[in-house]
Amino acid sequence: MTDPINAAPPVSEAIALKVQYQTRRRNWRGQLSISTVRAVDGVDLRVEQGEALALVGESGCGKSTLGRALLRLEQVSEGAVRFSGKDLTGLDQSLLRPLRRNMQMVFQDPFSSLNPRMKIGETLAEPLLVHGLATRAEARARVAEMLEIVGLDPAVANRHPHAFSGGQRQRIAIARAVIARPSFVVADEPISALDISVQAQILDLFEDLKERFALTYLFISHDLAVVRHIADRVAVMYLGRIVEEGSPETVFGNPVHPYTQALLAAVPSPDPVRERNRPEPVLRGEPPSPASRIVGCRFRGRCAHAMPICATSDPALARVGDNKHSAACFLHHHEARQQQAALP
Ligand code: SF4
Question: What are the beta bridge partners of residue 327?
């Protein structure tokens, strides 16, 4: 049944989404082997209007691929992606182009995300002109206004990207992403390449822009401290799947999936006494290759709580406690616990 409060479709939605790649490799005998990398392996996710959903997980877990797939910057192998209720899955580039102004991306590296040959004013005006949203004179005025909003002097419009620091370039990249007033922005590790001293300022800018332009964010980060700062909701990803989802208070205060618990236990504490007494890392080993065939729970090889059922069945994401918290772990699946208890 449709929730009357949430009757509007989510801004962005993944439905049983899979993104797979074929990789080809020759061994020393010259024999060719082809394997399938399952970067995103069956994800259901909703990003609701006006929220900042943080997507966290170790490097290589598929979070960037998922973010790009939601914008259809990746081909969808199976399942579907929707934007404000519209199915994007099978659209070709000509049909996606008019939608691009409404869904934008901010990349990790502000050095490579700006064209070094274009002046800042040209870079910022481009989306307005390409989408026919302004005349040249109007675009110049909008660029000046946008530069002020992101904390830069409008006079910098005449300069090239090399004249700016990393933090300033990221401000410009963010300005470019929001100048055409998109409704959805995917920010992929947008502060991890920046100096610590400017990271908080850029996070504040994201928050300010969210309020000012009623933006919806998917905020991808491996840094849980960043996520605590900005997120309204958190999704934890492991090896191509969402394994826990909920409010930041729930996921950080009462994590139930062993992977989330291990991630949080690995965060260094600012308190030196706590840091000295922090237990040894509980996250053992490396995740399996996304090209390997996985049977059972994908976290099983690293999980201290693995049970026999975890070797044969794949736990689905299911509600835990209140309806805003869910986890993919048999420890919290009522039926699985009963089956386990019935074993001799
Ligand atoms: Fe560990 Fe089993 Fe839960 Fe997977 S389902 S996280 S192996 S207890």
Answer: 244, 318
Confidence of residue 1 (pLDDT cuts 50, 70, 90): very low
Q: What is the residue type of 262?
A: A
Average pLDDT, integer, range 47-70: 95
Say what the pLDDT of residue 336 is: 53
Neighbours of 41 (CB within 10 A): 20
Residue 157, both tokens: 């419009």
Q: Edge-to-edge strands of the sheet including 32-47?
A: 32-47, 12-26, 78-83, 86-87
Whole-model pTM? 0.90
Q: Tell me the best of 303, 312, 313, 320 to mutate to test the pocket of ligand 1, counting ligand atoms within 8 Å of each CB and taking the most.
A: 303
Give the count of alpha carbons within 13 A of 169, CB side only: 22
Q: Which atom of ligand 1 is nearest to the CA of 332?
A: 3
The kind and range of the H/E element at 253 are: helix 248-253
Proportion of the chain above pLDDT 90, given as a percent: 71
215-243 burial: b if 16+ Cβ within 10 Å, else e: bbbbbbbbebebbebbbbbbbbbbbbbbb
Max Cα-Cα span within the chain: 78
